[in-house]
From TrEMBL:
This is GDP-mannose pyrophosphatase. GO terms for molecular function: hydrolase activity. Belongs to the Nudix hydrolase family. NudK subfamily. GO terms for biological process: nucleoside phosphate metabolic process; ribose phosphate metabolic process. Keywords: Hydrolase. The keyword Hydrolase applies.
């Protein structure tokens, strides 16, 4: 994209808003990409997180996820390193194996962000997780076979479900996983 044609509309601590012609879009100020972790415990449970998300004013069920390179002094952080860090921070689990699954834009009409899905296996619980000091994350362990019904139940209770969870389920059920 030709940066000379970008008109900066706003820059905050975390996002910038640009316009090119008639198109407006968001770009992260810090970070080199987002990671989404499909984490499966040795018992066959999928790790899901729940937290209140202010932009949608609701609790949202998500896969563990985060931004690579958003911490001062770690701007060149590798995606796999960020995936390990975010998995531990949010869920309290360490993964022996972290495998690349796919990458792509989650909202190509709105943002420049690229998301990379990683599969985390051979997990070991080392703490209770819950996120950093600005997060209040609840960790759910749901048997893979029960995830669709569990998600339907949560949606019926008024929680929102991040569609990336359904993409993660697809990867969790692949025979090579």
């Amino acid at each position: 994209m030709d940066d000379a044609k970008r008109e900066l509309l706003y820059e905050g601590k975390h996002v910038r808003l640009f316009r090119i012609g008639h198109w407006e879009f968001a770009d992260r100020v810090k970070g080199s990409g987002a990671v989404v972790i499909v984490a499966i415990t040795p018992e066959g449970n999928l790790l899901l997180t729940e937290q209140f998300r202010l932009p949608v004013n609701a609790n949202v069920i998500e896969l563990p996820a985060g931004i690579a390179g958003d911490l001062a002094g770690h701007e060149q952080e590798a995606l796999a390193t960020a995936a390990h860090r975010e998995l531990l921070e949010e869920t309290g689990y360490e993964a022996k194996n972290m495998t690349f699954l796919t990458t792509g834009p989650p909202s190509a009409g709105l943002a420049t962000e690229i998301v990379t899905f990683m599969l985390a296996t051979h997990l070991r619980c080392v703490n209770s997780g819950g996120g950093d000091e600005h997060e209040n994350i609840t960790v759910h362990q749901v048997p893979l076979k029960d995830v669709p019904a569990w998600l339907n139940q949560k949606a019926a209770q008024g929680l929102m479900i991040d569609p990336k969870v359904y993409a993660g389920l697809y990867f969790a059920h692949q025979p090579t996983m």
